[in-house]
Amino acid sequence: MRRTLLPLFLALCLLLGGCGWLNGSYVSVTPHEVPKQVSHTDTITAGNYKEFLDALKQLVSAGTEVAAVHVAEYPAKALEVGVRRAVYNVMHNDPIGAYAVEDIQYEIGSSSGLPAVSITVTYRHNSTELQRIRSAVGIEQARTITANALESYEAGIVLLVSQYEDTDFSQFAQDYANEHPETIMEVPQVTQALYGTGDSRVVELIFSYQTSRDSLRRMQTQVKPVFDSAVLYVSGDGDDYQKFSQLYAFLMERFDYKLETSITPSYSLLRHGTGDSRAFAQVYAAMCRDAGLTCMTVTGTRDGEPWTWNIVLDGEEYYHVDLLRCSESGKYRERTDEEMEGYVWDYSDYPACTGKPVPEPETQPTENNEEISN
């Protein structure tokens, strides 16, 4: 019986024109009945290239694996080229498609007697992952979402950013951590991938930490009361100089500090008394900002070694404050640019400190301060 049917089947194939293959996707000019009942199947109508492209984007965004697109109104002569072009566009230019799709195959045929295109999509990221994509209008909103993810110690995020601008999110993570030692216990290694072309892009960020997420959250919880206490330590009626001095005393009198570098700088400094110049400067700056004071961190060198210190706005004048150098002399001290002998920094990145010089304190170093200087 099979031998009788085979020649008849081959003859029908020859009469109906055969099949052609195109760039890994296949197109058949033979009338083909698109399956009516397939799981995850949607049926959409498209009368031209733009409508077909929009339909394909819609299917991919929904994570649809199999679909039939009715094309009765689509000019027959332009259909094959249009479908091929739309598939390429979605897989390479559309942000969601470039991120999520592994392959798209299609077959031109009919459904219920009407011209239709059968679509089969293979995904590298499934529908559940697509639902987790977060939308951002502009790069500032993207940075805000990223900052929230950093504070929650998420393993990674995927953003669909409209009005996209080139951004180094690894540098953003570093900068944000520097400015927020009260919430960021460890700076992750950031892997960044970009998908699509044009004004909208999908940005995939993967955050890798050396410390476990639970441990980082515990550290965050333990550090928060210290920052809260620092604000209460500042006198509301005092002038800026007095407030800066009070915060200096609050921080520097907590421990007999040891100079060490840590991957969890604020936690190690405030809970175990170990930190480097960067940790001191970043924690102090955050405490000052929480108290309503203007304080920034400066990165440069001291006596040829990498060093970090602060610049504060005392009244209407800016001054340098090196907490560790203050500790060496035993007293809080603000310095002008001229007094920063041995320091090197990029003058163009920071305000000039040209206020009235403050006399050197006469207080001798304490045992605590000697420990810090070692």
Report the sheet-strand fraction.
Answer: 25-35%
- Poorly predicted runs of 5 or more residues: 1-42, 363-374
Q: Biggest sheet: strands side by side, in what order? A: 3-4-6-5
- Note the main sheet: 4 strands, mixed
Q: Share of helix among residues? A: 40-55%
Q: What is the general shape? A: elongated
Radius of gyration: 32 Å
Figure out the total of helices: 13
Q: Output the helix-strand order.
A: HEEEHEHHEEHEHEHEEHHEHEHEEEHEH
Structural class: alpha+beta
Cα separation of the termini: 95 Å
* Strand tally: 16
The pLDDT mean sits at: 87
Architecture overview:
This protein is 40% helix and 25% strand. The protein is α+β, with helices and mostly antiparallel strands. The strands form five sheets. It has a four-stranded mixed sheet with strand order 3-4-6-5. Strand 11, helix 10 and strand 12 form a beta-alpha-beta unit. Helix 8 crosses helix 10 and helix 12 crosses helix 13. The radius of gyration is 32 Å and the shape is elongated. The protein starts with a helix and ends with a helix. The N terminus and C terminus are likely disordered.
